[in-house]
Amino acid sequence: MSERHTVLRSLHDVGLAAWFGGSLMGAVGLNGAAKREGADWQQGARIASAGWSLWAPVGAVAIGAHLVGSGGLLGANAARVLTQQGVAASTLAKTALTGAALAATVYGRVLGKKIELASSGTPQDAEKAERLPADIRQAERHLSYVQWAVPALTCGLIVLNALHAEQQRPAQQLYGVLRRARTLAPYVMSIHHWYRTH
Asked: How far is 141 from 124, CA to CA, in rounded Å?
């Protein structure tokens, strides 16, 4: 490829790395430390909530950077998506995983906010927590699943990113374009035949 997209690739990769790394660190380190150091459920929940709240703005910036980079690279590689066999499928899979990771991240934040409010001990916060979906035990259970789902989904994005990099090798591009042309050839011949006979 003659064109370079260093800024877009950097936004894409650094954003994804922070999204994956931050979510994995939170699920393993922060939650584990909160359980170990908290004298009771309330204190442990407060420790975990404080850490996740501090990370939330950084995580949002990382996700935003990744989305900007992804959108820019998709636009820059639109021709390859259309003409190279396999690229459209991996792009679709990547889009679906990104959507799932975003949904899990947002849902996790909503559940985390409920637990944060419920564990604060302030009556006003407890009232606010009641307005959010799910009871506290259900929220905790769902949150534990979601906080592991996010690093799993973003790890899937890293794997698909590696696949995209392999698909950009010159030999892979040529092979993919030839396969796409061979796939489309019968349809082109059918259309050509139809025009000749009508």
From this structure: 24
Cβ-proximal residues to 87 (8 Å cutoff; 6+ apart), any chain: 77, 80, 81, 164, 167, 176
152: closest CA among 100, 195, 117, 83? 100
In 3-state terms, what secondary structure has residue 1? Answer: coil
If we measure between CA atoms, which residue out of 99, 133, 113, 135 comes closest to residue 52? 113
Q: Measured between alpha carbons, how far is 170 from 163 in angstroms, rounded to an integer?
A: 14
Q: Which long-range contacts (CB under 8 A, 24 or more apart) does 32-40 make?
A: none
H or E stretch covering 148: helix 136-167
What is d(CA 71, CA 92) in angstroms, rounded to the nearest whole number? Answer: 13
Percentage with pLDDT > 70 across the chain:
78
The residue ranking higher by pLDDT, 41 or 156, is 156
d(CA 110, CA 116): 10
